[in-house]
Specification:
single chain, 7-stranded antiparallel beta sheet, 691 residues
Length: 691
């Protein structure tokens, strides 16, 4: 089955590899850049090997079926390493176990774990109530953490204190999130080619929505494709032959599943490696043609776009009018509230901590202590370690509750969702949940959809009720966005305040307030820009499968006749299926931008308009800054890089935090989409050459 899956997948990957490579070369030739700018300064990434967590705790060992005290270490590769003790780790001994929890689920309740594990153990034998009541593992302490994984044996950890349990479960959840989706954020053409190939491969089987098992790297994703077909066979062949008590059968089944998955991964790794070498050899021969014929390739593709668009336009417009347009505004309304609440809580948390820092300084007038508090605040976020709450109180994801609770605990989260329109009778339903029809009537489905949008860990990868969202092209977890914005805000605050820590106490206190306001203005703009991008992706993700399915029987069969418009030398670089998908994506993107712009025009949830001119500010002080009319947000500030130590002119620029020219005309805020924008500086004149 693995060999057959690789063989069937190979043509899709080869085609997408050539297309992605051509786009990569075109990007190099045309020097394309991301035109979306942000004004908060981005801090440098963590050094490899940075420790996120280390502690001694109880871990259940499957080999000996006993609980053992282990020293657990997690670095920023997000693997959970278990050592005999701290001394063994310090002397460089090999870990007893190393868990990569990609695709996993973290639970802290025995009942929840049993429910989930039983769901994935279709026991053909009817177990007695007595057997069902027996715990799978007997807990030695009061506060457990269960790590469920779809094809690997599960992990079990135990703690004496609830705070330690909460800390470790938060750690595992973040590890899962990173391992699930960091690969999909890669901008390499090879990663993009692989993800596009998976999309087209699954479309041929009639699956137009996103797939819950696209988690981890390319080997894990392709292995999951194999296991999706292999699992029913394993269940049919093996489960009826197992004997013994239920827990013994379940433990045996998990072990067999892990062995099968390991074999599949090894074979997939070899097959994919050979396939990639073939594709690299092919594109190496094509590179000269691509570079010399780039203009001709672009013109040929544009001509093909025009031809296919003429064929697609009318049925696509009809599908949008009937099944998309009536619901976009209400879907956006459902998304805006919880998404924006998370960004608002991050903003409030930053402001609260800076206010406390300022109040402490006004009480003590101690510049040395202020530097230390600023350093700790920066360190707590820079290390991206939300688990050391006692050491770095500033960044604590437990404080960012509104959106996280909305996603992670829909049973307890009772906030009603409003604004949904009734289902339109014209919607053409398809087998399984139609995203547009279901979302407008089912708040629980909306919560699940938001989970899918942020691509957090999933609980039931083999459920028949798979969410039908469009395949995410470059997903980014909302918690990642919050974390990044918080890091940027603290890093920018420290950089802006640094030159003013040596002055008089009264001036330093004023500087803290002014820098805080400046950073909050930057945060407000960045938050608006990021949220609009999130809404764009989410709305396209929700609605694209509906349009794809509506046109699958009429438009897609017609694509083959358009291959005649592609020159023979360019057949590897241009594919009609890719052009067709790009057209549908662009049609829906245009539709979603309309409702997002309308929401920004109405200043819903403090979204900025793309071309809104901001009011001029006071020359003498930032303490009297007023928010925009109808909004609690103000304008963004100049990038903090203007005052970075070692940058020429940084001394002069740092003073501009508090000085502005009244005579200069305020430039426009950069647009978040589409057009190329002018350099923007709410402080003063642009630095020469700064774009």
């Amino acid at each position: 089955k693995t060999e057959a899956a690789i063989k069937n997948f190979s043509p899709y990957y080869s085609r997408q590899y050539s297309v992605a490579f051509c786009n990569h070369v075109r990007s190099e030739v045309e020097q394309q850049r991301d035109l979306t700018s942000q004004f908060l300064k981005t801090k440098p990434p963590l050094m490899p090997g940075t420790i996120l967590y280390e502690a001694e705790l109880s871990q259940f060992s499957e080999d000996i079926k006993k609980w053992k005290e282990r020293y657990i270490v997690v670095k920023n590769d997000y693997a959970v390493e278990s050592y005999e003790n701290k001394e063994a780790y310090q002397r460089g001994a090999a870990p007893k176990s190393r868990i990569l929890p990609a695709g996993g689920k973290v639970l802290t309740s025995e009942d929840e774990y049993n429910l989930l594990s039983d769901r994935h153990f279709p026991d053909p034998l009817a177990s007695s109530e007595k057997e069902n009541a027996q715990p799978f593992v007997v807990l030695p302490k009061e506060f457990p953490v269960y790590l469920w994984q779809p094809f690997l044996r599960h992990g079990y950890f135990c703690f004496h204190e609830a705070a330690d349990q909460k800390r470790f479960s938060a750690l595992l959840s973040d590890c899962i999130r990173h391992l699930n989706h960091d690969y999909m954020k890669q901008m390499t053409f090879e990663a993009q080619a692989f993800l596009e190939a998976v999309q087209f491969f699954r479309q041929e089987k009639g699956h137009y929505g996103s797939w819950e098992m696209i988690t981890g790297d390319e080997i894990q994703i392709l292995s999951n494709l194999v296991m999706e077909e292999l699992l029913p066979t394993l269940q049919t062949d093996l489960l009826p032959k197992m004997k013994g008590k239920k827990n013994d059968r379940k433990r045996t089944w998990l072990g067999l599943l892990e062995e099968a998955y390991t074999l599949v991964q090894n074979q997939v790794s070899e097959g994919l490696s050979a396939l990639k070498e073939e594709c690299r050899a092919l594109t190496k021969g094509l590179e000269g043609t691509i570079r010399s014929d780039m203009d001709q390739i672009v013109n040929s593709k544009n001509y093909l776009i025009g031809k296919i668009k003429a064929m697609v336009a009318q049925p696509a417009e009809k599908s949008c009018v009937e099944s998309v347009q009536p619901f976009l505004a209400s879907i956006l309304e459902e998304l805006m509230g919880p998404v924006s609440s998370g960004f608002s809580e991050v903003r409030a948390l930053f402001e609260k901590e800076v206010d406390e820092l300022s109040q402490n300084f006004q009480n003590t007038k101690d510049s040395v202590q202020l530097k230390e508090h600023t350093r700790k605040m920066k360190k707590g976020v820079e290390h991206r370690n939300p688990y050391e709450f006692s050491k770095a109180k500033f960044y604590n994801p437990c404080n960012i509750t509104a959106y996280y609770q909305f996603l992670s605990d829909p049973v307890r989260y009772k906030k009603p969702l409003t604004g949904s329109k009734p289902v339109n009778s014209r919607i053409k339903s398809v087998p399984g949940p139609s995203p547009v029809s279901v979302i407008t009537t089912n708040p629980v489905w909306i919560r699940n959809l938001l989970k899918e949008t942020q691509r957090t860990q999933n609980t039931n990868p083999w459920s028949s009720k798979t969410l039908e969202g469009a395949y995410p092209r470059s997903p980014a977890s909302l918690r990642d966005q919050w974390t990044q914005l918080m890091e940027n805000a603290v890093f920018t605050f420290e950089q802006l305040l640094s030159p003013h820590l040596q002055g008089e106490a009264s001036k330093t206190a004023v500087a803290i307030e002014k820098v805080k306001l400046r950073v909050l203005k930057q945060y407000d703009y960045d938050s608006s820009t990021i949220r609009k991008k999130i809404f764009q992706k989410a709305l396209v993700q929700i609605t694209l499968p509906t349009v794809q399915k509506a046109l699958a029987s009429t438009c897609k069969p017609e694509l083959q006749k358009y291959e005649q418009f592609i020159f023979a030398d360019h057949t590897n670089m241009i594919h009609v299926e890719n052009v067709y998908e790009e057209i549908l994506h662009q049609i829906l993107l245009d539709e979603t931008l309309k409702v997002i712009k309308e929401a920004a025009l109405l200043k819903k949830h403090n979204l900025f308009e793309d071309n809104m001119a901001l009011p001029s500010e006071s020359v003498s002080s930032l303490t009297d800054l007023k928010p925009l009319t109808g909004s609690n947000q103000a304008s963004p500030a100049r990038r903090a890089s203007a005052i970075l130590p070692g940058v020429p002119g940084s001394e002069t620029l740092s003073n501009e935090v508090f000085q502005e020219s009244e005579e200069e005309k305020q430039p426009e805020v950069p647009s978040s989409v589409g057009q190329r924008r002018k350099p923007f500086s709410p402080w003063a004149r642009p630095t020469p050459g700064w774009d």
